[in-house]
Write a structure and sequence with these properties.
Number of strands of chain B: 9
Structural class of chain A: alpha+beta
CATH superfamily of the largest domain in chain B: NADH-ubiquinone oxidoreductase 51kDa subunit
Number of helices of chain A: 7
Number of helices of chain B: 16
CATH architecture of the largest domain in chain A: 3-Layer(aba) Sandwich
Helix content of chain A: 40-55%
CATH class of the largest domain in chain B: Alpha Beta
CATH architecture of the largest domain in chain B: 3-Layer(aba) Sandwich
Shape of chain A: elongated
Number of domains of chain A: 2
CATH class of the largest domain in chain A: Alpha Beta
Radius of gyration of chain B: 22 Å
CATH topology of the largest domain in chain A: Glutaredoxin
Number of domains of chain B: 3
Shape of chain B: globular
Distance between the termini of chain A: 31 Å
Largest interface: A-B, 52 and 65 residues
Order of helices and strands of chain B: HHHHEHHEHEHEHHEEHEEHEHHHH
Oligomer: heterodimer
CATH superfamily of the largest domain in chain A: Glutaredoxin
Distance between the termini of chain B: 49 Å
Helix content of chain B: 40-55%
Number of strands of chain A: 5
Strand order of the largest sheet of chain B: 6-5-9-7-8
Order of helices and strands of chain A: HHHHEHHEEEEH
Strand content of chain B: 5-15%
Bound molecules: flavin mononucleotide, iron/sulfur cluster, FE2/S2 (inorganic) cluster
Chain lengths: ~160, ~450
């Protein structure tokens, strides 16, 4: 298989930003994850390796290193709850517990209905508006469990 | 506290502050025009930065002009030259660069252009942490607008100066904020820091001369060009000039990002900006500059916030990210969370760091759970002393050791009491806190 042409044409432009094409690998992993179902399948990693002329294991090693890259399928929505210092001082653990209750997903797992995956993440740079969560790439800040519940319930 | 003459945040509250039109209407791109039209020699720009004694805002406080002067003479070294902007902002407690990038992106773009001109770099990469999607989008839109207006790209404003600016996203690894980890990551690899020397100015991105600077550092540069070094020096203290952005978080009434001159005290920031400790409680401790800096007890709250004074008080100015703990907070629990972070983020190249961060994390973890032993206190100290200072490839090991040593130094009695009681009386219910991070894959 090969990457869809919508992605390769974007990548063809990206690689020109660098003296060495390989530098576009991390942006490329992001593009693929966003456009191919929210995770990086073994097939996608192999296709990217072919595109960049790298060994698949090399691409896997890079993807594995970075917490934002997901190597297993996940639920339709990804909820990331910050559990670092500033957030934990303002109730991140209680928030996380409530998020798990509302979504039915365990920490690090997916709800039985496949709608939500929930993960812990490190400081997101929202410390002055703690606690926070990230729902599908959008920050929600200054949360309490009730507000978080409303936000999660309104997710399609 | 004297009135603050704001410049870093002067534009952020304007409607549409992120657009070129608003930026221009408030003096934007005048520094670039001045430098290119007069024209200034590149060395003149570097000289102003040197004269201003601007220190880096990314954590280490290194003199910016001095760093720039390490770039080799282009007449003798024909390699391409790069400026990399460190917008990875992932030191716990730090949330200041984001304000500039989201709400005044052109200010950073102009800073990049003037700085690249000074260093004769023709390519700038802005390495933004992957989670900052708004910052990324705002900066990309600003670059596009600037390019359209002839401010980015070939022959800028009709001069001989050409400069490209490219955005580059990270993907959630703290270690990519370390400047050599950042360069590895930008090259498309795992963010494993490189041993130094060689330093980036000698051999950086693709083995070419490179300077890495923090967002807020570079944001200062256009103001230096327009207002001069004397103006800048008059704002701060002798060793730390200008204003800085302070993010204050944790147990305070009004957490936020505030612009302040060096020389204010931690108490002034806490009481006058942040409205004091929340819920009418008393102060117990604070990190002055992010979780990698030494924890200070309440008795240090009158410390003057500048690099030398915070150091003299036994900590570091760091990223000026004050994290405040009220009297009810558990030190053991705070340290478990803090060390869990460094354990998770260690890249694993150095055994002291890879093993040391895990040990420190596990020891604090068992103290919180009432399973600590009396000898654990000395064990924490000896482990931390085995990790730092400067025993590893990069300073992440120091960042784990420093708060550990300060917590044991100032709060040994509290930690010992947890051991004696077989429980941490101040711990809140967070029993689910993972022993190891769930695999993120
Ligand atoms: C583990 C670690 C993480 C770091 N993270 C950041 C960061 O997120 N942002 C930043 O600007 N500097 C960070 N730094 C500091 C950089 O290595 C470097 O000193 C800085 O970007 C230089 O810019 P400045 O001189 O303008 O401050 C980090 C350092 C270490 C050791
Ligand atoms: S000190 Fe830690 S993070 Fe830095 S290079 Fe060594 S193992 Fe990696
Ligand atoms: S600690 Fe949660 S966003 Fe910084």
């Amino acid at each position: 298989m090969a990457l869809p042409q919508t992605i390769t044409s974007e990548l063809d432009a990206l690689v020109t930003h660098y003296p060495d094409r390989r530098a576009a690998l991390i942006p490329a992993l992001h593009r693929c994850q966003e456009q191919l179902g929210g995770w990086l399948s073994p097939q996608t990693l192999e296709d990217l390796a072919a595109y960049f002329g790298l060994e698949p294991v090399e691409v896997f090693g890079v993807a594995f290193f970075y917490p934002m890259f997901r190597l297993r399928p996940r639920g339709r929505h990804l909820v990331s709850v910050c559990h670092n210092v500033s957030c934990s001082l303002r109730g991140a653990e209680q928030l996380l517990e409530h998020v798990c209750k509302v979504t039915g997903a365990p920490v690090g797992g997916t709800s039985p209905d496949g709608r939500f995956s929930v993960v812990r993440v490190e400081c997101q740079g929202a410390c002055a508006n703690a606690p926070m969560l990230d729902l599908d790439g959008t920050f929600h800040e200054d949360l309490d469990p009730e507000r978080a519940e409303r936000i999660l319930r309104s997710a399609p | 506290m004297k009135r603050v003459d704001r410049y870093l945040l002067a534009r952020v509250d304007l409607p549409d502050s992120h657009t070129l039109a608003v930026y221009r209407a408030h003096g934007g791109y005048q520094a670039l025009e001045q430098v290119l039209r007069k024209p200034w020699k590149p060395e003149q720009v570097t000289q102003v930065v040197k004269d201003s004694a601007l220190r880096g805002r990314g954590g280490a406080g290194f003199l910016t002009g001095l760093k720039w002067s390490f770039m080799p003479d282009p007449a003798k070294d024909p390699r391409p030259r790069y400026l990399a902007i460190n917008a990875d902002e992932s030191e716990p407690g730090t949330c200041k660069d984001r304000v500039l990038m989201e709400r005044d992106p052109h200010g950073l773009i102009e800073g990049c252009l003037v700085s690249a001109y000074a260093m004769r770099a023709s390519t700038v990469y802005i390495y933004v942490r992957g989670e900052y999607r708004v910052s990324y989008a705002r900066l990309q839109a600003a670059i596009d607008e600037a390019r359209e207006a002839g401010l980015v790209g070939r022959r800028i404003l009709g001069s001989d100066f050409s400069c490209e600016i490219w955005m580059h996203p990270g993907a959630g690894a703290y270690i990519c904020g370390e400047e050599t980890g950042l360069m590895e990551s930008l090259e498309g690899k795992r963010g494993h820091p490189r041993p130094k020397p060689p330093f980036p100015a000698a051999s950086g991105l693709w083995r070419s001369p490179t300077t890495v600077n923090n967002v807020e550092t570079i944001f200062n540069v256009p103001f230096l060009v327009l207002r001069g070094a004397d103006w800048f020096k008059a704002l701060g203290t002798k060793g730390s000039t200008g204003n800085f952005l302070c993010g204050i978080s944790g147990h305070v009434e009004r957490p936020g990002v505030y612009e302040l001159p060096f020389g204010v005290t931690a108490r002034e920031i806490l009481e006058q900006c942040a409205g004091g400790v929340w819920k009418g409680r008393r102060l117990k401790a604070f990190f002055p500059g992010g979780s990698s800096t030494g924890l200070l007890p309440a008795s240090s709250v009158d410390v003057v916030m500048d690099h030398d004074s915070v150091k003299a008080a036994g900590s570091m100015f760091g990223t000026a990210a004050m994290i405040v703990l009220d009297e009810t907070a558990s030190i053991a629990q705070l340290m478990e969370v803090t060390l869990r972070f460094y354990d998770h983020e260690s890249c694993g190249q150095c055994s002291q760091c890879r093993e040391g961060t895990e040990w420190l994390h596990q020891i604090f973890r068992r103290i919180v759970r009432g399973q600590g032993r009396m000898q654990d206190l000395d064990l924490l100290v000896s482990l931390a002393n085995g990790m730092a200072p400067a025993k590893t490839i990069c300073a992440l090991a120091d960042a784990a050791a420093i708060p550990t040593l300060s917590a044991v130094k100032h709060f040994r009695a509290e930690l010992e009491q947890c051991v004696r009681l077989g429980r941490d009386p101040l711990a809140t219910a967070t029993a689910q806190s993972p022993e190891h991070h769930e695999a993120h894959a």
